Protein: Glutamyl aminopeptidase
Organism: Rubritalea profundi
Amino acid sequence: MKDKAISLLKSLTEAHSVPGYEDEVRDIFIEELVSVGDLSSDRMGGVYCERGQGPKILLAGHMDEIGFRVQNITPDGFIKFLPVGGWWAHTLLSQRVEVKTRSGAKVLGVIASKPPHFLPESERSKVMALGALFIDVGAASREEVERDFGIQLGDPIAPETEFTAMQKRDYYMAKAFDNRVGMACAIQTVQELSDEELPNTLIACGTVQEEVGLRGAKVAAVKVQPDVAIVLEGPPADDAPGFPKSEAQGRLGGGVQIRMQDPTAIMNPRLVELVVETAEREGIRYQLTMRTSGGTDAGSFHQSNEGVPSIVLGTPARYIHSHNGIIDINDYLEMVKLSLALVRRLDAETVAGLTQYL
């Protein structure tokens, strides 16, 4: 399972898939699952793999990563850009990016600004506003950018980062762990269960445009009409300097994160209890989490239709929403194990019990 996880995470994290342009991750999902279940898609670009019979268990990750789009091209060939998703400007200067053209070609560039040598002292200590940044692709004119490089307004832009093993065993650095760990887990869980008879209908799903407002999840909820939603995520770790160790709820090496609440969703308490009991019964390391900020596709799923019991499982990642995040792959493997155990337990009686209030 571990070797497969490393290979899958490498492919997914190095894919170029910003909101609205999730094609490369979608292609990996299809390639991995085409022989495992029935594939379908929705009209926003979300993709699904379904197998089994019984209550519908949705295992969902979002395919998009935060990125940018070409907003303008200056007469002298520099690219102005718009963020798509939540970027912190501190992380951007001197970082490599790739502009993906209509033809599918990828043009390498670097995020730059006016050099500090030419800034007054009062501006050197301030964070550059996004509007003051630009991308240099090595062109001399707008005509060269458009004619020779094939770049046009609206083209998507993603970080350019390799999936890399770190010195510490089982630590890996890459972009887009939010949320390629979720996509990998959805894919790998379905593959691991491919030869088993399930007590339910398992539907693995890759949603779109999560980073700009949980948009694809709204469509997925209408299409699937799930009875339970298990949202797989790459949430921010809180074990680096600046966080009290005693309050950490997303520590690398601490196991799969089980989220009980965030500003967008209060998870079904009975489902939370089932998830925790399952983790303990199976000897799966876990971390319970109450988040005071952020949100996931559970924010859309849990209040869709007549209400859907939802839970968020996560692989904590340091420095998400930047070019270089870090995970402990053992936390990811615990997330896969818990996903497998939950799918095996969610039969009709168990699912019905989550929402019996009378």
About this structure: The chain has a mean pLDDT of 95. The chain has two domains: 2-65+175-353, 67-159. The longest helix spans residues 329-345. The radius of gyration is 21 Å.
